[in-house]
Amino acid sequence: MHALTPLARFGRLVATDLRDVTSDPAALDSAGFWAVSADFEGRLVCARFADVRTLPVPEPVPGAWRGPAAEDWTTSLDRAAYLAGVRRIREHIAAGDVYQVNLCRVLSAPLPEPATADVDALTALLARGNPASYAGTIRLPAHGVEIATASPELFLRRAGRTVESGPIKGTARTEADLLEKDHAENVMIVDLVRNDLGRVCATGTVSVPELCAVQEYPGLVHLVSTVRGELREGAGWPELLAAAFPPGSVTGAPKTSATRIIEALETEPRGPYCGGIGWVDADRGTAEIAVGIRTFWLDRPHGLLRFGAGAGITWGSDPEGEWRETELKASRLLAIASGDRAHDGHRGRTA
Q: Which of 54, 216, 313, 325 is at a distance of 20 to 30 A from 26, taking alpha carbons?
């Protein structure tokens, strides 16, 4: 197979003819169409493409994607470690250190043919098996960025000076299964996102047009809110990313305290998971960057496919229930990536 060419795909937008790659967010205020990948730990890759077209979402090609065996997935935090992490977070909440923390685990599995694995072929499978608002591919093999996402969550949308975020908090199989804890968690994160955007938006412009709306996705429902504001004069992408990153819905509140607890409890870096994945059209002043959830990425040096799953922990959290939420979020997508083979759970061996 020939070397994979650089490509970015976001829904029906397809970008090719790579011209520039930079880690400087100021480039997003310059010119051109940029694919953006920001790891949770802060690594930023901005790739400018010269050719951007609107094309139909491709149908999966039989045999184009060879995924890991379903039984080969391992997890950075096994069930016992995850339950212990939830209990530790509740201790932090009781001590007044934090109100909410998103606790995540990274699942990994070896690819049968890592040298020829193409994340865009996986994106086509995900688009059919798990349609998502912010589905896409960023394929930059020479820069260590190979991502296939089926994210349902908006991190940042821009239209001129108007900026919007759509935090998701609260997940269940059906609307009837949503708990009071889910609503409280969503409101808590909305307040955090309002504060983040308030740091770079003009005074009095930050609003919440939608609070705790129920949205249905394959196999589950989410509570989704919308926070909107107008960027103040002089604020551009460097200021906006500095204020809003990492996304509040996948860190916790207060964000600085939650991040410290995450660093202490999680055993592997999240990478693109829980970061930002999307595009910026600097010529038109528009952008759409998703939160990197429901996201696979290639760890090509180790021949691995990786995926993240997490849950928001509050004082009202039941440790077993939070573990089950991570299972719910992972099960459908891991089955797709493993070729829709029989899959009865994704606890995974401890990595």
A: 54
Alpha helices in the chain (DSSP H): 79-94, 119-129, 180-198, 237-244, 255-265, 319-337
Give the model confidence (pLDDT) of 93-106 as tens digits.
999 999 999 999 99
Q: Is the model's pTM score more than 0.85?
A: yes
Single-letter residue type at 96: G
Whether residue 55 is contained in a domain is answered as yes
Catalytic residue among 146, 169, 181, 230: 169
Is 73 part of a structural domain of the chain?
A: yes
Half-sphere exposure of 31 (CA within 13 A, CB side): 2
Nearest-CA neighbor of 21 among 42, 50, 1? 50
Give the domain extent around 226: 7-339
Q: What is the model's pLDDT at position 348?
A: 56
Q: How confident is the model at residue 349 (pLDDT cuts 50, 70, 90)?
A: low
- Residue 63 makes CB contacts below 8 A (sequence gap 6+) with none
State how far the Cα of 306 lies from the Cα of 85, in Å rounded to an integer: 21
> Considering its fold, how many domains does the chain have in total?
1
Residue 212, Ramachandran bin (φ over 0: left; ψ between -120 and 50: alpha; else beta): left
113: annotated active-site residue: no
Active site residue 239: no
Q: What is the pLDDT of residues 127-186, one digit of tens each?
A: 998 889 999 999 999 999 999 999 999 999 999 999 999 999 988 899 999 999 899 999
Spatial CA neighbour of 103 closest among 121, 127, 85, 126: 85
Q: Are 341 and 129 in contact (CB under 8 A)?
A: no
d(CA 94, CA 140): 44
Give the integer Cα–Cα distance in Å for 320 and 50: 49
Q: Is residue 345 part of a domain?
A: no
The CATH number linked to 325 is 3.60.120.10
